[in-house]
Specification:
The chain has 9 helices and no strands. By secondary structure, the protein is mainly α.
């Protein structure tokens, strides 16, 4: 095997700077995606049929089309449609948040429905309004039950973030491609970036396991 990691060593700082870009993108997408996903899940279990249909239609659109197509549409069509020159990172966060919301809304909805109905009936009999009941009683239990699924969604966001390299964001994947173009070595920078992604995913998995154990002990 003719490998030469020494030639890409001077570019390691450049590659590692992409870790913050990738994490920033993932965290923002997860935050906005899970927030919107929670709202969508509440709409899906509401008694207002038009809103339920709109939520279901929204979900079907984002689950039924490729993520890279959604990203391209947001990035290239936004300036043409509304005249706003959207930045690559804005397009990425916006697209991934909307996509994540579609998937996580189904997970959150299932978590809400899995909470014992008796707790809702007891809350209503005590005069607890719908909003505080959901925020203080139902949603905390639902999120505890679906934490592994939400972690899987976060991991998928972290890995899929490599797609933003297609619109010029200098994330880990894009920086590996830049180094490969400069050194004419393609295997080595990709292996380095692969190891970095693996470390980040394992770190996120371990942190989620610690959080899950603490939540179980708090029962």
């Amino acid at each position: 095997m003719n490998l030469d990691f020494g030639q890409i060593f001077p570019s390691m700082r450049f590659i590692l700077d992409g870790v913050w870009v990738t994490l920033q993108f993932t965290l923002l997408s997860a935050f906005f995606g899970f927030t919107l996903g929670t709202l969508l899940s509440l709409i899906k279990i509401s008694s207002i049929k038009p809103l339920r249909w709109l939520a279901e239609f929204y979900t079907s659109i984002f689950r039924g089309t490729p993520l890279i197509l959604q990203l391209a549409l947001v990035y290239f069509a936004t300036p043409q449609l509304i005249g706003y020159r959207i930045s690559p990172i804005e397009a990425g966060v916006f697209t991934f948040a909307l996509n994540s919301a579609a998937y996580s809304s189904e997970t959150i909805r299932a978590g809400i429905m899995a909470v014992d109905k008796g707790q809702r009936e007891a809350s209503m009999s005590l005069g607890v309004a719908y909003r505080p009941m959901m925020i203080d009683i139902i949603l905390p239990q639902a999120f505890k039950n679906i934490l592994p699924a939400l972690v899987n969604e976060s991991i998928a966001l972290l890995k899929d973030s490599a797609l933003v390299s297609t619109i010029g964001v200098l994330d880990l994947m894009r920086r590996a491609q830049v180094v490969a173009g400069q050194t004419f070595l393609y295997f080595e920078p990709l292996i380095v970036v692969g190891v970095i992604y693996y470390i980040m995913v394992m770190g996120l998995t371990q942190a989620a396991q610690v959080l899950e154990r603490r939540m179980r002990r708090s029962d």
